């Protein structure tokens, strides 16, 4: 049970986050290599966050005060017994790496010949949905769900959250790119054009 809790803790939310980051990057018309790099960078950046969260959870568990029982209950609810903290941390980090890498790896290594962005996004959506369904089902199990309806509610909750977040991320990335292109903030000046301007100014002088 504690191993399942650790897998859910490390993989569920991060799987959704990685999916949103990838959809946002894809909406900006970034090429496959850049999207893969962004996904890996997101993985590395999030590693510090999850490590900090694990440490904070352990510290809050070992703290003192009137709400010590609440702190203990929270640690046990999320991971299990404190004596197995090292096991929890290792399993959670492995889960984090595996599930966070699914979206960028699937996007980067599917449809290599055609490099069809729509097909790649569809493959990512299917793979990530399977991961989220699996992890959400495991989360319902760790919460002691004894009815099929509870499993369905948990899966629907995280599935809808992932769909909405990735959809908003895709739309936001698309409109931000259009806005930046319209304003011309990052338009590159051709080297030949710069030389022409310099030469014309010199001639006038």
TrEMBL record:
Q: Which key words are in the record?
A: Ion transport, Iron, Iron transport, Membrane, Transmembrane, Transmembrane helix, Transport, Vacuole
Q: Where is the signal peptide?
A: none
Enumerate the transmembrane spans. Answer: 7-27, 33-51, 85-109, 121-142, 154-176
Which cellular components does GO assign to this protein? Answer: vacuolar membrane
Q: Does the keyword Membrane apply?
A: yes
According to its record, how does it sit in the membrane? Multi-pass membrane protein
Reaction(s) catalysed by this chain, per the record, are: Fe(2+)(in) = Fe(2+)(out)
Highest taxon of the lineage? Eukaryota
Q: Which GO terms describe its molecular function?
A: iron ion sequestering activity; iron ion transmembrane transporter activity; manganese ion transmembrane transporter activity
Listed GO biological process terms: intracellular manganese ion homeostasis
Compartments where found: Vacuole membrane
Q: Which InterPro entries match?
A: Ccc1_fam, ER_body_metal_sequester
Please explain the role this protein plays, according to its UniProt record: Vacuolar Fe(2+) uptake transporter.
Family, as annotated: Belongs to the CCC1 family.
What name does the UniProt record give this protein? Answer: Vacuolar iron transporter
Q: Which organism is it from?
A: Nicotiana attenuata
Its gene is MEBL_0
